[in-house]
Specification:
about 45% helix, about 280 residues, seven-stranded mixed beta sheet
Length: about 280
């Protein structure tokens, strides 16, 4: 009986371990990674992209998300991509690690949004190169499936390469939206009235009758005097020197830069996009 009980405990312990391992493996399997709202892919294409994105997400413990849309709801591609990632619960861990690829048919732009450790992997320079892969894979020609494969291929290459040694985040200053204040309105009205007054006075003065000008006897009132002037060149010399070319270190200093900004949720995101229409 003791031996049987021991075997039962060992069996239950083994089953428990299997369940824990299986649940950890299937965390990503239960997620959707492709959201084809613009209906750019066929069913087979969606399944293929889901498998590739799932494998990449599992391998690097981050969310690799693919989104298409026909309606950006009045947002820019950057805003739509960031909000889609933030408000749909994507991102692994406390830093919300992940990368989202958006084909925005509304704004005609392909955009990559990065979050957490994804910001470190995909620097500004690397994002541009991944976008090169996207465009070279047929985005402009309408091969959206091929373009998305280009994104996955380029992203996987940089994930394998690891985080660049000179990687650094560069927070971008938020742009202030222009607002018309009451003071601005008063200044604008006064400026407009002033301009109108000057224009009115100048036009009115042109139509006034001018007094006749008395003719001038230029022969009796003109004095002309000519003098001779000579300039003599005494000596001359030329100085020459070599001006060194300025060294351009901008490429080396910015190669590992990841420009970041705040999304509407308050999180930090990196990213970049490119118009295709």
């Amino acid at each position: 009986m003791v031996g049987l009980a021991g075997k039962s405990i060992k069996g239950m312990f083994f089953i428990l371990i299997i369940l824990i391992l299986f649940s950890s493996i299937t965390v990503f399997a239960d997620k959707s990674f492709v959201f084809d709202d613009a209906m750019l892919f066929n069913e087979e294409g969606i399944i293929g992209l889901e498998e590739k994105a799932n494998l990449l997400s599992t391998s690097y413990n981050m969310d690799i998300i693919i989104v298409t849309t026909n309606d950006a709801m009045g947002k820019t591609s950057m805003e739509y991509a960031d909000d889609f990632f933030d408000y749909n619960g994507f991102g692994v861990g406390d830093n919300f690690d992940g990368i989202l690829f958006l084909i925005d048919m509304d704004n005609g732009e392909a955009y990559i949004s990065t979050s957490g450790i994804g910001i470190k992997y995909l620097t500004d320079e690397r994002i541009e190169r991944v976008l090169d892969d996207v465009f070279d894979s047929g985005l402009v020609e309408g091969d959206y499936y091929g373009a998305t494969l280009g994104f996955l291929k380029g992203t996987e290459e940089y994930l394998k390469a690891g985080i660049p040694s000179d990687q650094h985040n560069y927070p971008e200053e938020p742009k202030e939206k222009n607002r018309l204040t009451f003071f601005d309105l008063i200044i604008s009205l006064l400026g407009g009235l002033g301009s109108f007054g000057i224009f009115f006075i100048s036009i009115k003065s042109k139509y006034k009758m001018k007094k006749p000008v008395k003719p001038l006897n230029f022969r009796n009132n003109s004095i002309v005097s000519f003098t001779e002037n000579e300039d003599k060149l005494i000596d001359s010399f030329v100085t020459t020197r070599v001006i060194p070319k300025p060294q351009n270190n901008s490429s080396s200093s910015s190669s590992g830069r990841s420009t970041t900004h705040k999304s509407s949720s308050g999180r930090s995101h990196g990213g970049g996009g490119r118009k295709f229409k």
